[in-house]
Amino acid sequence: MRVLVTGGAGFIGSNVAFALQEMYPEAKIYVLDNFSSGHFKNLIGFKGQVVTGNIEDPELWRYLRENFAFDVIFHKAAITDTTVMDQKLMMKVNADSFRYLLDAALEWNAKVIYASSAGVYGNSPPPMREEEGLTPENVYGFSKLMMDHIAMDYMERYPEMKIVGFRYFNVYGPRESYKGKSASMIYQLAVKMMKGQKPRIFKWGEQKRDFVYIKDVVKANLLALEKDVSGIFNIATGRARSFNEIIEILNRILGTNLETEYFDCPYDFYQEFTQADITKAREKLGYNPEYSLEEGIEDYIGYIKGS
What we know:
The chain is an alpha/beta fold. It is 39% helix and 17% strand. The two termini are 32 Å apart.
């Protein structure tokens, strides 16, 4: 099996690459990344090859089509900073480049497993279901929704193609530290509190998110590889938790009693409450998250302390 992982030096991509390396030791695994938000240290121990390039560059896809052939593409490369307001750049990198990838996959007869986002739902009322409430609040969410539209168009035009889209909710876990300000609030709060500093969050910490641990996300990707299925799926836990709860859990695990500092949210596109309906992923993929927020954070703290 020949596998391409775009964004493979990034958070989700590197975790997928290592899981594939472990599960399929005979596979030829290639990582594609431009190292704008990924980091080489995420790939220490990776035994495959790295191709450096920008996914929005048609010359890159021409080079790949002429020199390679893949059986599956895990497409995780994107601008992941949701605060980027350059609409043209966001659309070129996240949406337009997806057509180049799908055309290459069509030529190779490769399965495509790609990253969408819960950002497509904006502030539509939870629980969020795949077929409704598609009202993104920012251009990042819009770019991911357009990726979903492109994917559905290809599924319709080429029914023999296998395309799986994952609307990731709030993913956290090892190898996200190089994302900087785009790293999960769980990571940012944990690092701050481990230094004895007070956690700071937007007023009044009751905003809720469906936080999903990276190990469950990786499991979903492996299920998509193994199953003969196409479609777009929510990947989450199906349970929303508040930022105040995260701080309570961290205080308990770290043995601290740090008081929270609250400040005004500066964003007008902020999602107040996300919670996924994961029925479709359960039924079609056999996806069932294993980690509660408490279990995920406890597992993650061990990685952070060791890094």
